[in-house]
Amino acid sequence: MSERVAFLGLGIMGSRMAANLAENGFELTVHNRTAETAEAFAAEHDGVTVAATPAQAAAEAAIVFTMVVDGDQVRQVLLGEDGAATEAAPGTLFVDCSTIGPAATLEIGAELDERGSSLVDAPVTGSSPKAQDGTLTFMVGASQAEFERLQEPLQAMGELIVRAGPRGQGQMIKLLNNALAAANCAAVGEALIVGSRAGLDLDALVQVVGSGAGASTMLDLKAAPMRSHDYSTLFKLEHMLKDVRLCLEEGQRLGVPFPSAAHAREILCAGMGMGHADDDFAAMIEPLQGGAGERL
């Protein structure tokens, strides 16, 4: 708690993560693209300073967290006009918790290295409830020294903090994790649709599968929203599509197929086309139902 922290990006996840930093006593400066969001956040948390620009937020911070949507936004908030790196002191440690893939991470990191700063990738898993209660999982691409330096702030926001390896490796693990989640979510939806067509008691199906070899986090989290068609957003469908696409691009670069992820990508694409971009990715059930002619 001795180093001042800046947090850039106060969306669904970032606002909750930053709140845990504030509640754990960190000196915190925040910036958000929509200024009103940052002002409202500061009004709810004592001792938080609002910065008008990323550069202003980073000017006195030793550690700068980013939690935005994609690589273009990370580049803009760090390296663009009034970007955080323009005012950061040498030795500033930038920690990107967004999911942008290893290629963008390595490219942005190389530019920050040239400016005398450093970039760590620390994407998270665990949706907004885990961000709320500070039990996220962080997969960190960093040197051992950087990893140790980040223990206090990361522990304020997370429960499991894993050093994945050098820069970029945290991003690769995150992409694989999300691709697996999307593929599993699709499989859960498909099973529910087959069960519905067969006239099964879906409560019984979920109970039995949840106690056996087919159990999964996606079954626990997404079966009920799929059945009730409640797509209240924990993780946007369009963001899941972005993550799966990035994973498949890395697989293509490596020459390794990932067919179940490719199948999930097509379902997510169809969900986007049906207008579910901002809904939770449980809305994958909508194109699956359409293809089967069976509505839960």
Task: Summarize the structure in words.
The protein is α/β, with parallel strands linked by helices and 296 residues long. Helix content is 53%, strand content 13%. Helix 9 packs across helix 13 (259-273) and helix 9 runs parallel beside helix 14 (285-292). The longest helix is centred in the middle third of the chain and has 29 residues, at 169-197. The chain starts with a strand and ends with a helix. The model has no long low-confidence stretch (mean pLDDT 97).
Précis, in short:
With 296 residues, the protein is α/β, with parallel strands linked by helices.
Key words describing this protein structure:
elongated, alpha/beta, Rossmann fold, 2 domains, 9 strands, N-(1-d-carboxylethyl)-l-norvaline Dehydrogenase, domain 2, 6-stranded parallel beta sheet
Please report the number of helical segments. 14
Distance between the termini: 50 Å
Mean pLDDT: 97
Helix content: 40-55%
The CATH topology of the largest domain comes to Rossmann fold
Order of helices and strands: EHEHEHEHEHEEHEHHEHHHHHH
CATH superfamily of the largest domain: NAD(P)-binding Rossmann-like Domain
What overall geometry do the principal axes of the alpha carbons give? Answer: elongated
The number of distinct structural domains comes to 2
Query: Going across the major beta sheet, what is the strand order?
Result: 3-2-1-4-5-6
CATH class of the largest domain: Alpha Beta
Number of E-state strands:
9
Largest sheet: 6 strands, parallel
- Which CATH architecture of the largest domain? 3-Layer(aba) Sandwich
Question: Which structural class best describes the helix and strand composition?
Answer: alpha/beta
Strand content: 5-15%
Segments where pLDDT lies below 50 for 5+ residues? none
Rounded to an integer in angstroms, the radius of gyration calculated over CA atoms is 20 Å
